[in-house]
Amino acid sequence: MKYLFRSLLYTFLMLFLISLISFGAIHMAPNSFMGGELNPNMTQESIVQLRAIYGLDKPLLQQYVDWVVNLLTLNFGISFVSGAQVSAVVADRLPVTLWMNIVAMAVTFVVSLWMGIKAALAHGGKTDRFFSQLALLSFAMPSYYLALVAMMVLSVTLGWFPIAGMHSLEPPEGIGYYLDMAWHLTLPIMVMVFVGIGSLVLYIRSLTLEILKSDYIYFARARGIEEAKIIRHYILPNLLPPIVTMLGLSLPGLIGGSVILESIFGIEGMGQLFYLSAMSRDYPVIMGILMMSAFLTLIGNQIADAILLKLNPFVKR
Fold first, then answer.
1. Are 188 and 99 in contact (CB under 8 A)?
2. ∠ CA 165-86-278 to the nearest 5 degrees?
3. What pLDDT, in 10s, does the model give residues 252-284?
4. In Å, how far are 106, 165, 260 from 275, measured between CA atoms?
5. How far apart (Å, rounded) are the C-alpha atoms in residues 77 and 286?
6. What are the two backbone dihedrals, phi and then psi, of residue 85, each rounded to the nearest 5 degrees?
7. For the packed helices 236-249 and 283-311, what is the interaxial angle rounded to 10 degrees?
8. Are 62 and 151 in contact, with CB atoms under 8 Å apart?
């Protein structure tokens, strides 16, 4: 209970700091939706009326206090652009981004674990060099460049995947609807996985090489234990705790990377919504996405910590 209380207190404190910094940074940004810079046809009278309607004529501190009070009831405000509730707009876009990141993280974890262990077991051999070079290529590859190359080769030239969007022009009904969506999301998920495996493969390879130098590995091999059992009973239990920690730290990067990939592939998720809202200075939507992303990241880190405690009960709480 003490650990749970500290975790909740840490989460709420971080959310408060993130909201304070984000709110101040956004309102200090040049131009604004109500300033007339983005819409030269807007008259001064309309600007004054709109600022009064949305409460932008109040002091900045009062605006922040009002926003926090509304946030406690999950009221993120009203979008400047669409006039819809921000919570409804974000809830409509959230599932796609969430599932893309969950699937990409799961596949990244499995592929990186397999490649890292294989590279370490074949230390100095062709397999090790191949996987290490592939990991370095992944680590150095910008996601936007790989996305454009993948679209050009796999979509335009070979025609294996749709070039953009989430559905076909006439999507099928029933289970075919979800299969069609999965087909459209396969290419961006592949890009997310390839970009994400680089550092994780090198990290797992390094950890596995250290584990292979341990005495218990020498004794296990001396007893004639099969390689598969050594991996399952000796290597994996020692690899999982640091890997879980690293996956928890990589959550912000995954969510942040969605902004670029969803904009390139035309996927109607939170990343694309954040980009469009930033271009139009839609402050309520930007703050809603930032707070939702921060909340999911913090919760993901807390889940990673809980899994780490389960895998290694000797970790200090």
1. no
2. 65
3. 666 666 778 888 888 888 878 888 887 777 888
4. 26, 16, 8
5. 11
6. -65, 135
7. 160
8. no
**Closest CA relative to residue 54, chosen from 285, 290, 295, 277:** 285
Tell me the β-bridge partners of 78.
Answer: 85
Strand partners, 85: 78
> Interior CA angle at 96 toward 204 and 254, to 5°?
30
Cα 30 from chain centroid (whole Å): 27
Secondary structure of residue 84 in the 3-state scheme: coil
Alpha helices by DSSP H, listed for the chain, are 2-27, 44-53, 60-71, 86-121, 126-140, 143-150, 175-212, 215-222, 227-230, 236-249, 251-265, 270-280, 283-311
CA dist., res. 189 & res. 258, Å (int): 10
The C-alpha atoms of residue 263 and residue 146 are separated, in whole angstroms, by 14
Asked if residue 79 lies in contact with residue 89, where contact means CB atoms within 8 angstroms, the answer is yes
Predicted confidence at residue 37, as pLDDT, reads: 53
What is the biggest distance separating any 2 CA atoms in the chain, rounded to whole angstroms? 86
Q: At what angle do helices 86-121 and 126-140 cross, to 10 degrees?
A: 150
Distance CA 281, CA 270 (A): 16
Reading the block at residue 229, the tokens are 């059992």
Task: Give the mean model confidence (pLDDT) for residues 232-238.
Answer: 84
Copy the structure tokens of residue 41. Answer: 């046809």
* CATH numbers and ranges of domains, the chain: 94-280 (1.10.3720.10)
**DSSP-derived 3-state class of residue 160:** coil
pLDDT at residue 304 in the model: 73
Instruction: Return the structure tokens found at 260.
Output: 């670029």
Residue 200 · residue 116 · CB < 8 Å = yes
